[in-house]
Amino acid sequence: MERTLVLIKPDGVQRGLIGEIIKRLENRGLKLVAAKFVHVHRAFAEEHYAIHKGKPFFEGLIEYITSSPLMAMVWEGPQAVAAVRQTMGATKPTEAAPGTIRHDFALEMGRNLTHASDSIENAKTEIDLWFKPEEIFPWDRASEEWISGSN
């Protein structure tokens, strides 16, 4: 089973969309195995977004992600990385497919509500950064066979 990191960024928290985003991921068939409400400090934000250091938008991104609490989560399921990214929609909300979270709830790329790991490798790195092993809770879901079973 794949795991992926999802962050509901400060704009999603401030707009009261935590429940809606979790609902859509659960409806998709993904399983929540870790969650915490966090106020991110600058040094941690810089570590998470290190790949963007030196880019013109870096400072604004750090200020934004540290401006308000966010919800950090780990989701599990078959092809979890791809399924989450598809559910979120394109990074630029005006290019996101109808029915995706970003299409339905966002207008600007700088306020696109969520972060989702973009590969299995990055998911592992990000999960290890955001969560200690004891904060992740694998569990058996009674409906699993009806979601990801095979014939």
What would you say about this model in short?
With 151 residues, the chain is an alpha+beta fold. The chain has helices at residues 10-14, 18-28, 42-48, 58-65, 80-88, 101-105, 120-130, 144-148; strands at residues 2-8, 31-38, 70-77, 114-116. The protein has one domain: 2-Layer Sandwich (Alpha-Beta Plaits), CATH 3.30.70.141.
Oligomer: single chain
Q: Main beta sheet, described? A: 4 strands, antiparallel
CATH superfamily: Nucleoside diphosphate kinase-like domain
Arrangement of strands in the largest sheet: 2-3-1-4
Strand content: 15-25%
Instruction: Compute the number of strand runs.
Output: 4
CATH fold node name = Alpha-Beta Plaits
Give the helix proportion (percent range).
40-55%
Average of pLDDT: 96
Poorly predicted residue ranges: none
The number of helical segments is 8
End-to-end CA span: 18 Å
Radius of gyration: 15 Å
Number of domains: 1
In the CATH classification, which architecture applies?
2-Layer Sandwich
Structural class: alpha+beta
Shape summary: globular
Which series of helices and strands comes N to C?
EHHEHHEHHEHH
CATH C-level class is: Alpha Beta
